[in-house]
Amino acid sequence: MQVEANASLAACNTLRVAATARYLVRLGSAASEPVARELANLFAEPRFDGLPRMVLGGGSNVLFAGNYPGVVIMPRAAGIAVQEDADSVTVTAGAGHDWHRLVEFTVARGWGGLENLSLIPGSVGAAPIQNIGAYGAQLSDVFVDLEAVPLAGGEPRTMDAAACAFGYRDSVFKQALRDRMLIARVRLRLDKRPRLKLAYTGVREELAQMAVTEPTIADVSRAVVRLRRRKLPDPDTLPNAGSFFKNPVLLPDRYAQIRERCPHIAGMAVAGGFKVPAAQLIEACGLRGRRFGRAGVAERHALVLVNHGGATGADLLAAATAVEEAVAERFAVALEREVRLVGTWEEG
Fold first, then answer.
1. CA-to-CA distance for 296 and 299, rounded, in angstroms?
2. Known catalytic residues?
3. Nearest to 218 by CA among 209, 202, 207
4. Can you tell me the distance from the alpha carbon of 108 to that of 122, in angstroms, rounded to the nearest whole number?
């Protein structure tokens, strides 16, 4: 366990926003003791009494709109364990394991289920919080359970999918259990006889461009990686947090009105209406590539907000607000943020 006071968080979030935490704690670096014991030892120290606590994974889905006045905890225990039977494989990964490295590990062995989720930034422990998803797949499709440790102290809990209350880019960890649990490990069940998910048009088109007619999971993974690298800015070169907004689900009459005005905006039928790409709504407002000072909308993909250099959390929040207001004015649609906002302004 490593504890740093007044720690910079700029390198701990993919938007590269400058912010500080009163304390930054890295757990599991030496893998010498269980996370629950490390947490108990940590919060037995009087200096942490009464301070707010939050868990930070890879920092790929967070915007620090201000400094954090409490304790930021970063799980670092990684590692993979495997159990096999005739038809499936159960993979257990530590919270600190890099997500894409886990995907590569499973794809290389021919185990199906994660290939559509290739190249999503972040850690394994963060994946269930967001119920990450892409190209027609989501974590909950292969999820078995996870081990979570209460930040307030106590024994670890094993939580299955029902307990996690997964939804579209949502879970109980973003709702009732927000900032109350630390995910220590995640368990997934993958197929030895994969059933490929090719319903997403972009994946099929990419495979065709690759001249692949009978795809394997490795082919699907490569196609997804090619798509993401072409369409989305690399956070290492242009800081961003991936998709900033959720795709809204619109009632049929609202969707029909939008289609009358913008026939190119294409939604997908879901329970309750039509899920519409937020990127298409934003682009229809003429905001793709638009700069708002040091922050802006990505040129490659309108769903992504980027830091053009030196942007503060307030700069990015102002850009997000401008996008929301433009979409609301033109389409009467309220965009919901996918990225979590964190900062002292929240606490007041």
1. 9
2. 169, 243, 338
3. 207
4. 20
